[in-house]
């Protein structure tokens, strides 16, 4: 009988329309959906990530970015081993909001939480860029965050984000972390139904 794959809960946070769902979709299915609707409540999926020396089942919660759902966020980042905080490099206000998420996570989440700070939409023309790599990387370094720049549209660095997280989470935390998928479904407040998808592809 094969050993059970250890699981790790990951939550995605960030302002609406920064590309959180597109990042998850690119990672899970290597596709990009143009003009997708905003996430309502949260969406959930799992994916097994193999990094060579370890294999982890990621339980990924993609949360809504609208302010009216902010009060639900603690329900999703509770017991998470990693958080991916996303901003849009062409929208400075989303960068400011992402910093607020980091500050909220620190006192309320797992004290050993791995936080990936992700600037998305780097495929956009440089003249439209509103957040420089230097400024974002400096902030991430100051608060000991993993920093990445991605394009969910083109797939740039998306898999690298999850692989780096898999290698960064202490293995003892992964083995000790309770699974969050059993008996739990995502909350979709618009359709009153859950989004629960599973992928067993390697990173």
Q: Could you describe the 3D structure shown?
A:
This protein is α/β, with parallel strands linked by helices and 203 residues long. The chain has six helices and seven strands, in the order βαββαβαβαβααβ. It has helices at 20-29, 73-77, 92-108, 133-142, 158-168, 171-176; strands at 7-14, 42-50, 55-63, 82-88, 114-120, 146-149, 196-199. Strands 6-5-4-1-3-2-7 form a seven-stranded mixed β-sheet, with helices on both faces. Strand 5 (114-120), helix 4 and strand 6 (146-149) form a beta-alpha-beta unit. 40% of the residues are buried.
In a nutshell, what does this entry contain?
With 203 residues, the chain is an alpha/beta fold.
Features:
203 residues; alpha/beta; 7-stranded mixed sheet; 6 helices; globular; disordered C terminus
What is the element layout, followed by pairings?
Layout: E1 7-14, H1 20-29, E2 42-50, E3 55-63, H2 73-77, E4 82-88, H3 92-108, E5 114-120, H4 133-142, E6 146-149, H5 158-168, H6 171-176, E7 196-199
Parallel strand pairs: 1-3, 1-4, 2-7, 4-5, 5-6
Antiparallel strand pairs: 2-3
Mean pLDDT: 83
- Judging from the principal axes of the Cα atoms, what is the shape? globular
Strand order, main sheet: write it out. 6-5-4-1-3-2-7
Beta-strand proportion: 15-25%
Structural class: alpha/beta
Q: What is the count of helical runs?
A: 6
Helix content: 25-40%
CA-CA gap between termini: 24 Å
Residue stretches low in confidence (pLDDT < 50, at least 5 long) are: 182-196, 198-203
The helix/strand order is EHEEHEHEHEHHE
Biggest sheet record: 7 strands, mixed
DSSP, total strands? 7
Nearest-angstrom radius of gyration?
16 Å
Keywords: Nucleotide-binding
Region (Disordered): 176-203
GO molecular function: GTP binding; GTPase activity
InterPro entries: P-loop_NTPase, Small_GTP-bd, Small_GTPase
């Amino acid at each position: 009988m094969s050993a059970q794959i250890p699981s790790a809960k990951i939550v995605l946070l960030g302002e609406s329309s920064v590309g959180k769902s597109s990042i998850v979709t690119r990672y899970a299915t290597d596709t990009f959906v143009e003009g997708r609707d905003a996430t309502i409540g949260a969406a959930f999926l799992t994916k097994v990530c193999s990094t060579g020396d370890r294999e982890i089942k990621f339980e990924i919660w993609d949360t809504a970015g609208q302010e009216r759902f902010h009060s639900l966020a603690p329900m999703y980042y509770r017991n998470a081993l990693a958080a991916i905080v996303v901003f849009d490099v062409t929208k400075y206000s989303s960068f400011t909001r992402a910093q607020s998420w980091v500050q909220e996570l620190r006192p309320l989440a797992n004290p050993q939480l791995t936080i990936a700070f992700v600037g998305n939409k780097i495929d956009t023309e440089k003249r439209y860029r509103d957040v420089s790599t230097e400024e974002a990387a400096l902030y991430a370094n100051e608060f000991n965050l993993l920093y990445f720049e991605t394009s969910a549209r083109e797939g740039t660095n998306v898999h690298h984000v999850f692989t780096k997280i898999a290698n960064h989470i202490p293995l003892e935390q992964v083995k000790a972390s309770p699974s969050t998928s059993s008996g739990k479904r995502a909350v979709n407040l618009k359709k009153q139904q859950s989004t629960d998808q599973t992928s067993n592809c390697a990173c």
